[in-house]
Amino acid sequence: MNDMPEALQSISTGTALLNPRAVLKEVGFVRGMRYADFGCGPLGHFAIPAAMMAGEKGHVYAVDIMKKALAGVESLARLEHVTNLTAVWGDFERFRGTRIPELSLDCVSFVNDTHLLAEKPGILEEVKRVLKQGGLFFLVDWNADGIAFGPPKEARVNPEAVKPAILRAGFQFEKSFRAGPRHWGIVFRWEHAG
Q1: I want to staple 180 with a disulfide (CB 3.0 to 4.6 A). Which of 18, 61, 139, 145 is the partner?
Q2: Which residues share a beta bridge with 135?
Q3: Alpha carbons 45 and 14: distance in angstroms, whole number
Q4: What Cα–Cα distance (Å) separates residue 2 from each residue in 9, 16, 111, 113?
Q5: Contacts 24+ apart (CB under 8 A), 112-119
Q6: Which residues partner with 175 through β-bridges?
Q7: What pTM was estimated for this model as a whole?
Q8: Pairing, β 183-190 against β 171-180
Q9: Residue 92's closest CA among 46, 126, 67?
Q10: 106-160, pLDDT tens digit by residue?
Q11: Count of beta carbons in the 10 Å neighbourhood of residue 98
């Protein structure tokens, strides 16, 4: 007999809730891009597919402050024969906290951690530091509905609540999209002043 709640029994693993390849395509990610996933987690759910999509001329940085998470990503990258991924132990919540070269990336993502933007304004400064002219910054997070899995409802963020702070930081709104059955997505572009 299965003691798991019915709502959780219907969840399959992998990409059923959040398909990183579909999200990356929606954002405009293409072969040859240089990309960083801030807060990649131990599975590199976005970083590893992005590295595969980027091809040999692209490069991906899997960034996390937890060394165990980075060890997991490195292990999965080896299993998948991914050679264009660099695990970066760093604090993306601080300016210059990632040691990624300035103005070097085409795209940066922030997935399922949007609540941190209100608490840690240094995140946006670090994103701006590493993005090239015209680079993309995209956020993906849980819908604010009351489903039985995922973060508690009070910890979820409405995309319209974070949009003003990102615009004030100098980003330009590109688009909003449905990132999955339980996730929203929003894309911004960074244009350097001067």
Answers
A1: 18
A2: 190
A3: 9
A4: 9, 21, 31, 31
A5: 112/39, 112/140, 112/141, 112/142, 112/151, 113/38, 113/39, 113/141, 114/139, 114/141, 114/157, 114/159, 114/162, 115/155, 115/156, 115/157, 117/157, 117/162, 117/165, 117/166, 118/157, 118/162, 118/165
A6: 187
A7: 0.88
A8: antiparallel
A9: 126
A10: 999 999 988 888 788 889 999 999 999 999 999 999 988 766 677 777 778 888 8
A11: 23
Strand partners, 88: 63
| pLDDT of the residue at 3 | 36
Which residue shows structure tokens 């300035």? 102
pLDDT tens, residue by residue, 28-47: 999 999 999 999 999 999 99
Q: Which of 39, 84, 82, 80 is nearest to 62 (CA)?
A: 39
Instruction: Output 11 or 46, whichever has higher pLDDT.
Output: 46
Helix (H/G/I), strand (E/B), else coil: 189: strand
H-helix or E-strand containing 6? helix 6-9
| Domain ranges for the chain | 20-148+163-190
| pLDDT of res. 119 | 82
CA 88-77-186 angle, to 5 degrees, is 65
**Per the structure block, which two tokens stand in for 109?**
């993502």
Class of domain 20-148+163-190: alpha beta
CB 112 within 8 A of CB 141: yes
Q: How confident is the model at residue 59 (pLDDT cuts 50, 70, 90)?
A: very high
Q: In what order do the strands lie in the sheet with 85-89?
A: 85-89, 59-64, 34-38, 105-111, 131-142, 183-190, 171-180
